[in-house]
Every structure is written in structure tokens, then in C-alpha cells.
Hints:
Blueprint: E1 3-4, E2 15-20, E3 24-28, H1 34-40, E4 43-44, E5 59-68, H2 77-81, E6 84-85, E7 90-100, E8 105-106
Parallel strand pairs: 1-3, 2-7
Antiparallel strand pairs: 2-3, 4-8, 5-6, 5-7
Amino acid sequence: MHKDLDPGSATADDFRLEIAPQGWQLACRPDQTLLLAALAAGVRLPHSCRNGTCRACMSRLTQGRIRYRIEWPGLLAEEKAQGWILPCVAYACEGPLQLQAPQAQALAPREAPPGTLSPPAVDKSVHSTRMEDASD
Length: 136
């Protein structure tokens, strides 16, 4: 089953990204890394450095093509040949894309990046306390 995450925000230039095996579908802008697209849609991929060195976000791309913002991210040639990518520095260049990320999780509302979810309801009720004068 596929679940569209924020389908109304996609534009004609966006790429379609599926997070598998969960089946989550989301839009990825050409100027946005796969990691940032996932986070903006409310999907947490493991990550740490966001610059292609720690390998915490390493996932397998099974469909589509990406380009990197750095010349050679922290992957071995064999890993690249097997489809492993680093979503923190990977940009979509041919889609649709499918990313195998079984460790991906839906973000709780309080963890989502600013602007992705509605703000929590604020309790605007007025509370009043009256202090008694100790001299009475």
C-alpha cells in the first residue's frame, strides 16, 4: 500500500520518491537532498553528519538516478555499484526514485521540521491565583 505524504505540495519539476518497504510516496525538489525531502515530508531517515562522511544515512537506491553535491561521498566503489547511496548529499536527477530504507520512521509532530506541520494547539485559558495577605 502506498501512502502519499503531502501530495499537494508537489510541482511539475519535483521527482517522486518512494520510501520502501513502507510504501511512503513523497515529492523531492531538484535542489533538495533526498534526506531533506524525507524530513520535510515527515519521514525520519537515520542521519548524523549531513555531509556524506558518517554513512549513518546509507540506503539502497533501487530505482531512479541521483547526483551528489560532493565529488566522491563516503562510499566505496563496490557499494556504489551495488546501489548504495548517501541520501544526505544525494539529489534526484531522474525519477521516479525508490529508496530501500527499512529503518525509516514517521516523525512525531513535535520532531518535524518547522513549517511541515500545523503548530500545536495553544491553551489560551486564563489562570488566576490570588495570594492571601499574611497580615490578615
